[in-house]
Amino acid sequence: LLENPAEADLWLLNSCTVKNPAEDHFRNSIKKAQEGKKKVVLAGCVPQAQPRQDYLKGLSIIGVQQIDRVVEVVEETIKGHSVRLLGQKKDNGKRLGGARLDLPKIRKNPLIEIISINTGCLNACTYCKTKHARGDLASYPIEELVDRAKQSFQEGVCEIWLTSEDTGAYGRDIGTDLPTLLWKLVEVIPEGAMLRLGMTNPPYILEHLEEMARILNHPRVYAFLHIPVQSASDSVLMDMKREYCVADFKQVVDFLKEKVPGITIATDIICGFPGETDEDFQETMKLVEQYRFPSLFINQFYPRPGTPAAKIPQVPAAVKKQRTKDLSQLFHSYNPYDHKVGERQRVLVTEESFDSNYYVAHNPFYEQVLVPKDPLLMGKMVEVKIYEAGKHFMKGQPVSDGRVYAASITRPLAKGEVSGVTEEFRHTLRNGTNWKAHPSAEIPEKTPLSLWMALQLPWQQGGGGLKILSVSLALLAVLVMFYYGVMKTEL
Predict the structure, then answer these.
(1) Domain-wise residue ranges, the chain
(2) What pLDDT sits at residue 142?
(3) Which residues cross the membrane (predicted)?
(4) Are 405 and 430 in contact, with CB atoms under 8 Å apart?
(5) Fold held by 94-334
(6) What is the model's pLDDT at position 436?
(7) pLDDT averaged per 10 residues, the chain (length 491)
(8) What pLDDT does 45 receive?
(9) pTM above 0.85?
(10) pLDDT reported for residue 445
(11) What Å distances lie between residue 94 and 98, 132, 297, CA to CA?
């Protein structure tokens, strides 16, 4: 895999269909690839939702449930063929959750594992195009999710993010629910590691409030929940077909704030949805003023082609822009962390800041804390004293008498190293050794038979074939990383 796209023979482009700008960027990338005479393979929600778009004609496409066949599609595309795999995976007529969880992957951050717990959703929001691509709810079995978490911790991960279009709806299609999954995951989280929950819509969390409060109070679960409200007007919510009212949202937030002291509630707002009046928007402003959300995702409404909301008379662009500006000004008028200066906090260090001047950690409420750039802190849970606060972060200094927790004695994988393969198998790839020289080696227990057979072929042709194997395995792993990375941005 090449660092410089201009040197590549083929471009593999992943996509997101949540907003117009993301799709526009995808379209521009395709045009750039074609101008450079590159072979092109497309993946993600855009081609899955609208494969007959003119600008997609003649190009190979991997559907959102077919990412495990990326090597096959790339090989055929390089030969000059156009391949389209867009079908839904099923087992005895039942829709499956998507690609296997035990596929090889490359983590963008070796300390953080992102696990998709289900695909699709139960809602039919009038503005959303993602449903067209990902379809109805399909959940992964609890045992598969727990196994993936265990494997992650064995590879040195110290933080797990659960993600999906709607985590709160998990399990409704397979006879279980989110709290049941979370209690099983909590059992395998080692000391010094943390679990972060993904986005959940209000309707699917209401019936589990008591249980969710207990889980969010667990010392190895961040007291953080992302609950999109989108609007504080019931009439707008009805037009959106969000299936809840503002009182439902407030009930969830008020209950969790009471039962989980200090909890961080993040939310989303859409400004200028079709039919939104000035009075509707003022209700939204009042909601933000009341709760002063520390994390607020403000979105100016974009009509997505093919959605019901695109056919409704639109709010003038200037009005949408002004409402977005007004809400942004309100959000930036308060500082949620000023009162925490002087506190001692337990934080988990997992990343480097964008300016490379600090390491990034998070406290039990998933609030961002910048700490000194000391390599000994990375991947550790440490105690710090907060000495400064900004709008989106705090700064902390490690305390001399604080305890340091290491989530695992296992060395994290190196950046770019493939997850999900055995150590002996990894050694073979690194050293180019013929697999036949290791008669005791067995097929990795979790490797799909079809994938294993495909990987065996190069070895039968000598050590040089291992280069093909390495590239194929890395290619599959990179797409898995991109796939879950895009899901995260959608959420």
Answers:
(1) 5-87, 94-334, 340-406
(2) 97
(3) 468-486
(4) no
(5) pyruvate-formate lyase- activating enzyme (3.80.30)
(6) 38
(7) 78 77 82 88 79 83 79 88 76 64 86 92 85 79 95 94 93 95 97 95 92 97 97 97 96 98 98 98 98 96 90 96 98 97 97 96 98 95 97 96 79 86 61 43 38 34 39 49 46 42
(8) 76
(9) no
(10) 40
(11) 12, 18, 35
3-class DSSP string for 379-423: CEEEEEEEEEECCCCEEEEECCCCCCEECCCCCCCCCCCEECCCH
Which residue's entry shows tokens 């995951």?
A: 185
CA distance 34 to 56: 11
Mind spelling out the 3-state secondary structure of the chain?
CCCCHHHCCEEEECCCCCCHHHHHHHHHHHHHHHHCCCEEEEECHHHHHCCCCHHHCCCEEECCCCHHHHHHHHHHHHCCCCCEECCCCEECCEECCCCCCCCCEECCCCCEEEEECEECECCCCCCCCHHHHHCECEECCHHHHHHHHHHHHHCCCCEEEEECCCHHHCCCCCCCCHHHHHHHHHCCCCCCCEEECCECCHHHCHHHHHHHHHHHCCCCECCEEECCCECCCHHHHHHHCCCCCHHHHHHHHHHHHHHCCCCEEEEEEEECCCCCCHHHHHHHHHHHHHHCCCEEEEEECCCCCCCHHHHCCCCCHHHHHHHHHHHHHHHCCCCCCHHHCCCEEEEEEEEECCCCCCEEEECCCCCEEEECCCHHHCCEEEEEEEEEECCCCEEEEECCCCCCEECCCCCCCCCCCEECCCHHHHHHHHHCCCHHHCCCCCCCCCCCHHHHHHHHHHHCCCCCHHHHHHHHHHHHHHHHHHHHHHHHHHC
Distance between CA atoms of 91 and 187, rounded to whole angstroms?
A: 29
Q: Determine the topology of domain 340-406 in CATH.
A: OB fold (Dihydrolipoamide Acetyltransferase, E2P) (2.40.50)
> From CA 105, how far away is CA 148, in angstroms rounded?
12
380 with 192: CB under 8 angstroms? yes
